[in-house]
């Protein structure tokens, strides 16, 4: 595939036209896989021999935690694209993704707290993973606040992109600093390429479906929000043009 | 570059706010803590190093918005941008001036305030060293935040929201080093991590600050 | 070293304001920009000074030859007049501030803190800054704001002396400066025409 053809989608018009067709399919797929994954996970898997039925919150907790990090990574990539190639859609996609990422982070934190209460006997512990997510949430808040605070769209895109780059470095540093600061209660990663370390197959397949559902949900939401941002941006441009006369 | 540094220091001295305000705020934080947690000296001794680090961090935060905002308002930044100084040098000098007027006094005052909080004797040395290593990074990161928010009317609160998460690694390693010092443990690891982060920050972040400032001057 | 601007298009806040601006400023000459408020004179000057990038077109000059003076003078209220000038002289690698003080008749004010000056005196100090930089191309945005007739004449004389030394000046102003030798450039005809609304492409404007 010719990679240059990909940049055509960075044109707002082309983006709107393409997503018009794609969005319904993605949305339907997201809903279907979420329903299948969650129903399968909640009602058709056995209880864990140690954790009982509480383990089932994994179907919300793991996908949202994954997305919380991946959304930030996606923002990092789109910010870089904006800085290097200055495609407006890219900057607007980063802006559109931030609140979704923040909500994913909150879901991960909330489900973690609900899971932690019966398991560890506490809603919150200053465990490295939990703390890292809290810090990640603060980064999302700062990023969104900066977008909101600046009137000029291009200036805002430039500044938030650089903040995203710098923030990524410091978020990574914080992750290691927090690890050093406190040894945690949290179990190791639930997912890894090493099959032996994974959760058992009965939990594993519905979890995969749920993760796919969350990814699709994110794609649907980010497309929808980017379309909104593009239209809002165009509206502001038209208003500015009108004022100019 | 020296001229800019001297001017900034002179301005800080004449305007009054520079040296005094941060220190006074630091003192107030240290004074208020015993009111909040109680006067037992064994409790205070346990949390002293953490309180001193937090106090230093907050005092540093207090004066960040002044790093660039004043020069922005009176047009000096526009003129400096067209002067034969690279923007990276300007933001580095600004950060250095901020550290000399805010960070360094905090480092020097920390042992005195440590007395107030019954900081155990072995804790003084690592506390001062950790602050000496950490506060320059606080100023450099703060300058980045100030550059991000320089054009905004109500930038102060936003500045805190942007800068504080970036302070996390420095606070963790700095306070950890001070705490290990108090407990008489080996603090080489946090010392090296803190020094590494500070060096990396000073070396790289001015490029980001300069880029941000150029965008804001457009 | 002159200044050559060719086919320049500039934008303010993402909106194109002037397009196709071309002119050449040779050593020893001055250009006065005229046009109604909001047409984009300040944006043009800032673009030429290198503070913001043009949308298209080129500004050919040596960036180290330009000194810019905007609406604000960059004066620190707590520093004295002499300290303010000394600072800018040092930044630009110069030492002489006496000539500038004499040219704008600031002798009696040198030890006064700049915060105590009147608006007109501050402006004179801001203009004196141009002289201490030792740079040949002056880019001035409304340099005569709050100056009285006498000070305007002082300014015109300073510009004339600058031109005689082989310098040049690009000045945006609304009033008569008393510089008959300056070439007057009306920017009105360069006003940007909005593109067709259907023509949204990569950019939004």
UniProtKB/TrEMBL annotation, chain A:
**GO CC terms:** plasma membrane
InterPro entries reported in the protein's UniProt record: Cyt_c_assembly, Cyt_c_biogenesis_CcmC, Cyt_c_biogenesis_CcsA/CcmC
Q: Which UniProt keywords apply?
A: Cell inner membrane, Cell membrane, Cytochrome c-type biogenesis, Membrane, Transmembrane, Transmembrane helix, Transport
Q: From the UniProt record, give one GO term of the biological process aspect.
A: cytochrome complex assembly
Q: Which parts pass through the membrane? A: 22-44, 64-84, 96-118, 130-150, 162-182, 202-224
**GO MF terms held by the record:** heme binding; heme transmembrane transporter activity
Leader sequence range is: none
Q: Where in the cell?
A: Cell inner membrane; Membrane
**Which residue intervals define the domain Cytochrome c assembly protein in the entry?**
15-186
Membrane topology is: Multi-pass membrane protein
Q: What is its biological role?
A: Required for the export of heme to the periplasm for the biogenesis of c-type cytochromes.
Q: Which family does it belong to?
A: Belongs to the CcmC/CycZ/HelC family.
Q: What is this protein called?
A: Heme exporter protein C
UniProtKB/TrEMBL annotation, chain B:
Task: Give the residue spans that cross the bilayer.
Answer: 12-37, 43-64, 96-117, 123-150, 157-175, 187-213
Q: Which InterPro entries match?
A: Cyt_c_biogenesis_CcmB, Cyt_c_CcmB_bac
Q: Which UniProt keywords apply?
A: Cell inner membrane, Cell membrane, Cytochrome c-type biogenesis, Membrane, Transmembrane, Transmembrane helix, Transport
Q: In which compartments does the protein localize?
A: Cell inner membrane
Q: Which GO terms describe its biological process?
A: cytochrome c biosynthetic process; cytochrome complex assembly
Q: Which is an annotated GO molecular function term of this record?
A: heme transmembrane transporter activity
Q: Does the keyword Protein transport apply?
A: no
Which Gene Ontology cellular-component terms appear in the entry? plasma membrane
Do the record's keywords include Cell membrane? yes
Q: Which superkingdom heads the taxonomic lineage of this protein's source?
A: Bacteria
Q: How does it sit in the membrane?
A: Multi-pass membrane protein
- Any idea what job this protein has? Required for the export of heme to the periplasm for the biogenesis of c-type cytochromes.
Regarding protein family, the annotation reads: Belongs to the CcmB/CycW/HelB family.
- Name of this chain's protein: Heme exporter protein B
From TrEMBL, chain C:
**Segments forming domain ABC transporter:** 3-205
* Recorded superkingdom: Bacteria
- Which is one GO molecular function term here? transmembrane transporter activity
Q: Which Pfam families match?
A: ABC_tran
Q: Spell out the PROSITE patterns in the cross-references.
A: ABC_TRANSPORTER_1, ABC_TRANSPORTER_2
Entries under SMART domains matching the protein: AAA (SM00382)
Name the SUPFAM superfamilies for this protein: P-loop containing nucleoside triphosphate hydrolases
Q: Which Gene3D superfamilies does the annotation name?
A: P-loop containing nucleotide triphosphate hydrolases (3.40.50.300)
- An example Gene Ontology biological process: cytochrome complex assembly
Is the 4Fe-4S keyword given for this protein? no
Keyword annotations from UniProtKB, A to Z: ATP-binding, Cytochrome c-type biogenesis, Membrane, Nucleotide-binding, Translocase, Transport
Q: Which PANTHER family match?
A: ABC TRANSPORTER I FAMILY MEMBER 1
Write the protein's name. Answer: Heme ABC exporter ATP-binding protein CcmA
Q: Which organism is it from?
A: Roseovarius gahaiensis
């Amino acid at each position: 595939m010719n990679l240059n053809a990909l940049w055509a989608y960075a044109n707002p018009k082309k983006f709107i036209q393409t997503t018009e067709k794609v969005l319904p399919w993605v949305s339907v797929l997201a809903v279907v896989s979420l329903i299948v994954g969650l129903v399968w996970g909640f009602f058709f898997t056995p209880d864990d021999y140690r954790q009982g039925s509480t383990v089932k919150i994994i179907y919300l907790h793991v996908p949202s935690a994954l997305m919380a990090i991946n959304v930030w990574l996606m923002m990092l990539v789109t910010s870089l694209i904006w800085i290097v190639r200055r495609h407006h859609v890219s900057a607007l996609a980063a802006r559109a993704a931030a609140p979704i990422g923040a909500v994913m982070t909150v879901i991960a934190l909330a489900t973690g707290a609900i899971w932690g209460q019966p398991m560890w006997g506490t809603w919150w512990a200053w465990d490295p993973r939990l703390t890292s997510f809290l810090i990640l949430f603060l980064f999302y808040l700062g990023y969104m606040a900066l977008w909101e605070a600046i009137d000029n769209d291009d200036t805002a895109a430039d500044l938030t992109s650089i903040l995203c780059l710098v923030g990524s470095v410091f978020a990574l540093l914080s992750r290691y600093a927090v690890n050093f600061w406190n040894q945690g209660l949290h179990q190791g990663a639930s997912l890894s390429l090493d099959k032996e370390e994974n959760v058992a197959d009965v939990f594993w397949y519905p979890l995969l479906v749920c993760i796919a559902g969350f990814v699709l949900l994110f794609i649907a939401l980010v497309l929808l929000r980017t379309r909104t941002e593009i239209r809002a941006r165009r509206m502001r441009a038209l208003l500015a043009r009108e004022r100019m006369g | 570059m020296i001229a800019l540094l001297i001017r900034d220091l002179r301005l800080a001295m004449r305007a009054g706010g520079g040296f005094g305000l941060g220190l006074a705020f630091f003192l107030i934080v240290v004074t208020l803590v015993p009111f909040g947690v109680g006067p037992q000296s064994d409790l205070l001794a346990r949390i002293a190093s953490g309180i001193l680090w937090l106090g230093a961090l907050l005092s540093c935060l207090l004066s960040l918005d002044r790093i660039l905002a004043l020069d922005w308002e009176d047009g000096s930044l526009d003129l400096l941008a067209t002067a034969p100084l690279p923007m990276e040098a300007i933001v580095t000098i600004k950060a250095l001036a901020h550290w000399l007027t805010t960070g360094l006094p905090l480092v020097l005052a920390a042992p005195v305030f440590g007395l107030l909080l019954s900081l155990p004797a072995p804790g003084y040395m690592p506390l001062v060293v950790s602050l000496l290593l950490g506060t320059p990074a606080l100023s450099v990161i703060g300058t980045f935040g100030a550059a991000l928010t320089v054009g905004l009317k109500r930038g102060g609160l936003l500045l805190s929201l942007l800068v504080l998460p970036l302070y996390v690694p420095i606070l963790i390693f700095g306070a950890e080093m001070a705490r290990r010092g108090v407990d008489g443990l080996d603090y080489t690891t946090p010392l090296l991590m803190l020094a590494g982060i500070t060096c990396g920050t000073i070396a790289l972040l001015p490029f980001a600050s300069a880029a941000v400032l150029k965008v804001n001057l457009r | 070293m002159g200044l050559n601007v060719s086919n320049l298009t500039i934008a303010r806040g993402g909106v194109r304001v002037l397009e196709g601006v071309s002119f050449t400023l040779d050593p020893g000459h001055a250009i006065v920009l005229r046009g109604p408020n909001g047409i984009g004179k300040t944006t043009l000057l800032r673009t030429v000074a290198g503070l913001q990038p043009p949308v298209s077109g080129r500004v050919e000059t040596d960036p180290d030859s330009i000194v810019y003076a905007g609406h604000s003078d960059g004066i620190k209220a707590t520093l004295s007049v002499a300290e303010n000038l000394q600072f800018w002289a040092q930044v630009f690698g110069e030492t002489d501030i006496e000539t500038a003080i004499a040219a704008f008749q600031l002798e009696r004010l040198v030890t006064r803190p700049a915060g105590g000056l009147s608006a007109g005196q501050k402006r004179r100090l801001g203009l004196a800054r141009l002289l201490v930089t030792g740079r040949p191309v002056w880019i001035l945005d409304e340099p005569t704001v709050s100056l009285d007739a006498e000070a305007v004449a002082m300014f015109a004389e300073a510009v004339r002396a600058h031109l005689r030394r082989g310098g040049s000046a690009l000045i945006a102003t609304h009033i008569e400066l008393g510089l008959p030798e300056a070439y007057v450039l009306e920017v009105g005809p360069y006003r940007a025409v909005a593109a067709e609304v259907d023509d949204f492409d990569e950019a939004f404007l």
